[in-house]
Design goal:
The protein is mostly helical and 118 residues long. The chain contains 3 helices and 2 strands.
Length: 118
């Protein structure tokens, strides 16, 4: 369970504001937008990936104490790996190789006809 950055009380992960000190915990009143805060006298931009590669367009840059897009450059993003089911893999392979399957089917039928006419 997360804690409030001001009063350090435990709060619900979906809470928009701290029920104890009314500090905003989520940006724009939306539970899906996290609000990152700097600690003490530091600025978020010092450790942000977007500031490092110069793609940040936040108006308070480089002195932002709060930000919704912050991503710590010391923690690289996780690579999401996913696997398709064998049915989906087979379906995709069949769709990509339809022409080959038609040619092999015609070749098989012609071999069967040729063997039957001997």
């Amino acid at each position: 369970m997360p804690t409030c950055p001001r009063c350090h009380q435990a709060v619900d992960s979906q809470a928009i504001t701290c029920p104890y000190c009314r500090t905003a915990l989520k940006a724009y009143g939306h539970p899906g937008i996290p609000l990152y805060r700097a600690v003490e006298d530091e600025y978020l931009c010092q450790t942000c990936t977007y500031d490092e590669d110069n793609t940040c367009n936040f108006p308070q840059r480089p002195y932002a104490k709060e930000c919704t897009l912050y991503h710590n450059r010391l923690h690289p993003p996780e690579r999401l790996r996913y696997r398709l089911s064998w049915q989906a893999t087979l379906r995709g392979w069949l769709q990509r190789h339809t022409g080959l399957l038609i040619v092999l089917g015609l070749l098989g039928v012609s071999l069967i006809v040729a063997m039957a006419n001997r």
